[in-house]
Amino acid sequence: MFDLNTKVLVVDDMLTMRKLVGKVLKELGFKDIIEAKDGAEAWATVSSTNPPFGLVISDWNMPNCTGLDFLKRVRSDSRFIKLPFLMVTAEAEKGQIIEAVQAGVTNYVIKPFTAEILKEKLEVAHKKVSGG
Amino acid sequence: MPKLDAQFFKPFIDGTLSTLKVSCLTEAKPGKPFIKGSQKQPAFEIAAVIGLTSSGFIGNITLCFTGDLYLQLMSRMLGEEFKELTHELQDGAAELLNIIFGHAKVVLNSQGHTIQKAIPTVIRGHALETTHLGKQKLIVLPFTTDVGEFHIEIGAEETNGMG
């Protein structure tokens, strides 16, 4: 599992959803949680924060810059090729999942989700990036 | 062409039950769907609306809550007690509808519909009622919970493949 001191970025245009994801992360023990309201703000935050983020949890469907566009931007920067990136979405059609995987998503969470589901997805994501 | 019948509404009911259960820790019970105007409906204070567009029809879906029920659901969802419906809290209605819509969209598109992505909006006020224009069929899906009643309105008009 991720170190609970990992800096986490939660990206969603809906304030209540950011609060919900933040609440679940706190329940799991994470302490350092930062929020962004769309992909553009998220990219500005990720690319300028030091020490860097160790985990991104992003919504897909957002105005300005979608979660997918944000993911592509992250992966196009050599500093963030291995940054664990979870996509959270209410629309889980096969084509969409394939698109996210091709863009380099680490794991995928379908809404609605429980704390247990998010924990499982995080564990799988951690194994993937740590080669475990 | 896929029809707007009971099978069409089922994924919205299933999506509502699972969304309320998982996100708001609330068991909802679906009532019997009815045509808008044929039964009395409670007024509501907050609603989320999302456009429904496919190759066969256009319309919209509205998720309607009384203020008290909405506060109870948000309190359960976010794990803190809310007594006032603030601006910050209102996008939860859109998020709930977004999740319900997402569930229904996947099921319906796998059955041959071609429902497109949409972003919900929220309306707020006192004693709100909806009025739909055109020849839309208006179906009300009522639900009960231990903290009150809410409903979903689905209005859709077939476009003979031109939508």
- The CATH class designation of chain B is Alpha Beta
Q: Pairing-aware structural class of the strands and helices of chain B?
A: alpha+beta
For the record, give the distance between the C-alpha atoms at the N and C termini of chain A, rounded to a whole number: 10 Å
Rounded to an integer, what's the Rg of chain B over CA atoms? Answer: 15 Å
Q: What fraction of residues of chain A sit in β-strands?
A: 15-25%
Considering the protein shown, what is the CATH homologous superfamily of chain A?
Answer: Response regulator
Helix amount of chain A, in percent?
40-55%
Question: What's the structural blueprint in terms of helices and strands?
Answer:
The complex is a heterodimer of chains A (132) and B (163).
Chain A (H helix, E strand, L loop, with lengths): L6 E5 L3 H14 L3 E5 L2 H10 L6 E5 L7 H9 L9 E5 L4 H9 L4 E4 L4 H16 L2
Parallel strand pairs in A: 1-2, 1-3, 3-4, 4-5
Helix pairs in contact in A: 2-3
Chain B lengths: L5 H19 L4 E2 L3 E2 L8 E10 L3 E9 L1 H12 L12 H20 L10 E8 L8 E9 L2 E11 L5
Antiparallel strand pairs in B: 1-6, 2-6, 3-4, 3-5, 4-7, 6-7
What is the gist of this entry?
Chain A has 132 residues and is an alpha/beta fold. Chain A contains five helices and five strands. In chain B, strands 1, 2, 3, 4, 5, 6 and 7 form a seven-stranded antiparallel beta sheet that branches.
Question: Features of this protein?
Answer:
heterodimer; A: 132 residues; alpha/beta; Rossmann fold; five-stranded parallel beta sheet; 5 helices; 44% helix; 18% strand; B: 163 residues; alpha+beta; Chemotaxis protein chec; seven-stranded antiparallel beta sheet
